[in-house]
Amino acid sequence: MFEVTSTQHVLAVKDIESTERYFLDKLGFSVRFRVEGWSFLSLDSFHIMLGHCPDEVPARDTREHAYFAYINCVDIDEIYRDYQKRGAEIFQVIADKPWGLREFGVATPEGHKIMFGEDIEPLSNS
Q1: Cβ(44)–Cβ(105) under 8 Å?
Q2: How many separate domains does the chain show?
Q3: Is residue 106 part of a domain?
Q4: Which long-range contacts (CB under 8 A, 24 or more apart) does 22-27 make?
Q5: Are 102 and 74 in contact (CB under 8 A)?
Q6: 6 pLDDT band (50/70/90 cuts)?
Q7: Can you tell me the mean pLDDT for 33-46?
Q8: CATH code: domain of residue 94
Q9: Helices in the chain by DSSP H: which ranges?
Q10: C-alpha closest to that of 106 among 84, 75, 85
Q11: In a domain, 65, yes or no
Q12: Half-sphere exposure of 75 (CA within 13 A, CB side)
């Protein structure tokens, strides 16, 4: 039977060293392994492949939709507080949304955006 065991996202970055350091220090990822021009990072079953692309336009400069991942999780308030303490760039503060999710968003140094969400009871309209 088909089963998805994890996802792996590929990000082209100009400065692989500083981007990797941000993922490790600010977002709590760990290094799975490195090969020339690539850094493979993980946060539980969420995997990132950073590719060194020195001529790439940073995501924040494209003026396009720079979201690349939405992470469904549990204990969202815990990771949110941790990211605040670590100094992560939080572009959307944590809030309960009318579509039944508690969400917040972080951005990387080059402007890639990650949303985190946890299921909650839908908010009433009263």
Answers
A1: no
A2: 1
A3: yes
A4: 22/108, 22/109, 23/48, 23/50, 23/108, 25/86, 26/83, 26/86, 26/87, 26/88, 26/89, 26/106, 27/83, 27/86, 27/88, 27/106
A5: no
A6: confident
A7: 96
A8: 3.10.180.10
A9: 16-25, 76-86
A10: 84
A11: yes
A12: 5
Instruction: Say which DSSP state 58 is in.
Output: P
Amino acid at 87: G
- Structural domain range at position 102: 7-119
- What sign does the CA torsion over 47, 24, 78, 124 have? negative
State residue 42's pLDDT score: 96
Under 8 Å CB-to-CB from 66, ≥6 apart: which residues?
59, 60, 107, 111, 112, 113
| Cβ 101 vs Cβ 111: under 8 Å | no
Beta strands in the chain (DSSP E): 7-13, 30-35, 38-43, 46-52, 67-72, 89-96, 101-107, 113-119
Residue 110 belongs to some domain of the structure: yes
For the chain, the residue count is 126
76 within domain boundaries: yes
- Smallest Cα–Cα separation from 69: which of 125, 114, 2, 33? 114
- Of residues 30 and 63, which shows the higher confidence score? 30
